[in-house]
Write the structure tokens for this entry.
Amino acid sequence: MRTTTLLIQLLLICYITSSCSQSEGSTSKQGSQQQISEDSLLNLVQYQTFQYFWDGAEPTSGMARERFHTDDIYPSHDKDIVTSGGSGFGVMALIVGIERGFITRKQGIQRLEKIVSFLEKADTFHGVWPHWWFGPTAKVQAFSQKDDGGDLVETSFMAAGLLTVRQYLNKSNSEEKALAERINTLWQNIEFDWHTQGQDVLYWHWSPNYGWEMNFDVRGYNECLIMYVLAASSPTHSIEPSVYDKGWARGGIIAEDTTYYGLETVVNHFETDDSPVGPLFWAHYSYLGLNPQGLKDKYADYWKLNQNHARIHYKHSVENPNNYKGYGPKTWGLTSSYSMRGYAGHRPDRDLGVISPTAALSSFPYTPEESMAMLKYLYTEADSLVGKYGPYDAFSHENNWLLPRYLAIDQGPIPVMIENYRTGLIWELFMSAPEIQKGLKKLGFSYE
């Protein structure tokens, strides 16, 4: 039954895109099971996760809902809340959808115009967007008591997506050229330098009601590298290299790595939260557009960093020191996601027995064989781990637990990073932005 359902979905994608060769999506029996080609599985998971941002978008704004409950029960979270960071991943996914033929270019441009129109009227704070808005009104929705203003990290994820879109747009087309100019205005309005408070570091939050009371200075390695790159790249509100070197890199401490599961961590993850390595989203969020291939500075080789990060998570699940049920070469990957205890940051040294599919699937560029094994398991062996928007957020065989729900920040990296693995498209677009090239040079990066 499950294989039949998958084949129907694959045939639908073939019909939509007219891209299936005669052999693609074909099946052959081995015993009682039909086999689905690897290429078709990649098409399917990209299509389904793209649909989170297309079919599942909040209708007024076109933005990505923070989360989606398949049971339509939102006990403490309104389904009309939209997310800035997740929408940044989503606009990259829209490009994937256009290029893969899931939607037409005209449909994609219309949705992007709706999103940009929303952002132009939405609450902003020194050009910086909040973590959440209420979609129908474009008014800020507090993420927490004091987090009711600008969120520079989530803004950076949104800005990275918009710059990628700008590079994708056809400047010889008047409609697309106008959209690119509107994106430029949004990008140039972001006051990155405001978030230094005159110091050599970037601060995450500012609130019109609480000022800088959250006091979160972003130092040491985590998911926020893209924020520093964008801040250095801003043509209007740029930061000095000292903000990166003294703040983010902590005067060089970031380069003091360790060895974990026999692999170099390349950078010091301890400075962030005293763990040998972080959850795997650290290897994804900044690198949806920022290409780590050949990317180096005086602190790290970023390809080695991310590849080793993914391999450490894989080796942890294979060695399975906690003897959790279901862990192994086909089921691996820990990141921040739902859990039996609510939202939690999963990593090898803080393992609750919860596997988050986005961890392995978004690591395709780093661990293609290992990620493919996970993809095949989800779609050809597991009974109930996949829904209409792709793999559910998290599951635990150890605890016989599954929550059939989705999070934008977990679904978004899947189609984008898989596209980077297949064609390098999103990397190519983002890295082609002249401001990014200047910003990377300013911070001392080199890339091939």
